[in-house]
Amino acid sequence: MQTPTLSVPDDPTALVEQLSGALTAVADLDQAPAMAAYLKDRFVLFGVKTPIRRKIAKPYVDAFRGAPEHVVPFAHACYARDERELHYVAVDTLRRWQRHLGPQHLEDLRVLLTTHSWWDTVDSLAAHPVGHLVKRHPELVATMDAWIDDENLWLARTAILHQLTYKADTDEERLFRYVLARADSTEFFLRKAQGWALRTYARVNADAVRRFVAEHEDRLSGLTRREATKHLR
Fold first, then answer.
1. Is 88 exposed, middle or buried (0-12, 13-18, 19+ CB in 10 A)?
2. Tens digits of per-residue pLDDT, 28-43?
3. Which of 44, 92, 147, 200 lies 20 to 30 A from 179 at CA?
4. Does residue 91 contact residue 125 with C-beta atoms inside 8 Å?
5. Could you report the per-residue pLDDT of 186-200, keeping only the tens digit for each?
6. Of residues 97, 152, 154, 84, the one with CA closest to residue 129
7. What is the DSSP letter of 120?
């Protein structure tokens, strides 16, 4: 398959239409129902598995090398479509060019997080573009402080997960505070996120996570505790 050389038009919709055509051309209609079922039938899919999608999308993602200002409009244009594979390309593009994002783009990310929301896109946006922005621009912590209490569970999940890649730079107090802020929630996706964030931080400071889980055992859900201590036993 020959890789096309692409230029970024002023109207990102045209590029998304071209990408849509390329994905349609390699779609496996027999795979689409199973792929949709994996996502609880929440989304329309072309039927393009991840390795093929990434190969097809690569020149589109790379096209922004000289035009990073078009990345966010392209992502919005992808999200304006129903097909899930286009949402994945949007997320991959944002991750690829996240160093070009500025504080003003956190609002754009909020829109994407709350559009066609499910764990498969939210988690990647949370840990990478959002996490990257908050780390580079500490004033955005105030937004995370607001999101952890938001009624939209995906924004709260993003607040919990945004430090996943921080390793030793993790703000321990903030992490523990966010976990406790939603510890009383019965929502699976928040309980799972709490455990995942704690388990990830345990690779940096296992003793701190052990103490935290022990001290708050009565408040943390069984799922959160199991996830947090999975590699500490």
1. buried
2. 999 999 999 999 999 9
3. 92
4. yes
5. 999 999 999 999 999
6. 97
7. H
